[in-house]
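Reply to dn_fold:

You asked what the input looked like. This is it:
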Amino acid sequence: MLSIRILAALAALPLLAQRPPAADAARKYREANEQKIIREYVDLLSIPNVAADKANIRRNAEHIAKMYAARGVKTELIEVEGANPAVYGELLVPRATRTLLFYAHYDGQPVDPAKWTDSGPFQPVLRTAPVEMNGKLLPLDQAKYDREWRLFARSATDDKIPIISLATALSALSAAGIKPQANLKFFFEGEEEAGSPNLRRLMMKAKDKLKGEVWLICDGPIHQSRAQKLSFGARGVAGLDLTVFGAKRGLHSGHYGNWAPNPAMNMARLLASMTDGEGKVLVKGFYDDVTPLGKLERDAIMSNPRQDAELKQELLLGTTQQFNGDLRESYYKPSLNIRGLESAQVGTKAANVVPPEAKASIDLRLVKGNDGRRQADKVIAHMREQGYFIVEGRDPTDQERLSHAKVARVDVNLSYNAFRTPLDLPIAQKIIALAKRVKEPVVLEPSSGGSLPLVVFEEVTGVPLVAVPIANHDDNQHTHNENARIGNLWDGIELLAALLAM
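and this is what came back:
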């Protein structure tokens, strides 16, 4: 006969598997208010939010503060000299024993309006499908919204979707009479897409307010299989801007083309020397500092769905770089990526010249153990091994150009290093269990492929972090025609409501 203790445990299992009431309340609220939610979302997306546009960035911050204040959240703008304001909000619960901190950013990537289809980046439009699938335009106001429809605007996903989802979830909890059990604190940054240069100063100013049990980082896309993903870290990032010099002015390619060194050709050779073409970086010592993964982390990675074949089909890729393994494995090795190249003109604007210089921008994705400055120094050392005289942060003098066969300028842009939260942390396990009750399957990712300034959060506040992304993976993040899948918005509201009520 089974013991009373075992019978009691078995009896509790169905209860543990039930969806959280907060998630069901969010669904009920959303179904009754879809047009209202989309309209509030559109209003937020209509405010330009490029980090360098100070006036409109402040409009965003003030707008978000009002959105949350209308839901009973005590809000204020955190300001330090020279920085875009951070929006801080708190909803304190008497006698609460837990405090949850939520992060998102309200700034977006720069835009080229001419590349957006049928609208500008800050004139949201609704379509039946992505532009690439010939999605048809629809009126913004609808009685009901199909889960596959897309809302197009800059920051539709990166990263205003969690801001509207959290606000909607608060409304849903209030409408259902569900009171939060934990103190809730919100910190929305306005410079993430510019590398978070002032995040540390902003957080230091608000340090006394930013105390809690866990940061819930609401940024990034869900898994490519459309399964909900939880990430427990993120890669860091550093950047290098390179300039290779030739003659002091552009030269006629007929008169000088086989005599004067061509900086565009030299840049191409230099960049090609940095990798083997299959993803392996050939810079000496590039992989030396990597912190090995633990067994729990390796098991989580290998249990995640493989999407390589589907993504190759979607992206029209005939092959992938083999050195880093499949996509799910590639996030755990540092990378070197060419972000852009520039030298003279091409196509109908091309002239028969030997260009005077060539420029390239590189980003270095950092994993746990890497330091951005050390990785940048390794790349600079590699350039010297290729015969380059390097000047950092300035143009070379005339004498330096005359004295060396190869001359390059390097500008190092440091952002932040990588961070990982242990998967077996009790609060992490609680979040995993809750997410699975909202909707399965849940993909556990020890680190995301993208970069977030998570190490700054840990260093300033000492609070562990879990990333809870809700955006669709095929959102054209960071490029034109960025879009949010409506189904991701609806699911995100439910998940975040459950977390708010945790």
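The chain has two domains: 19-232+421-500, 236-293+332-416.
Hope that clears it up.
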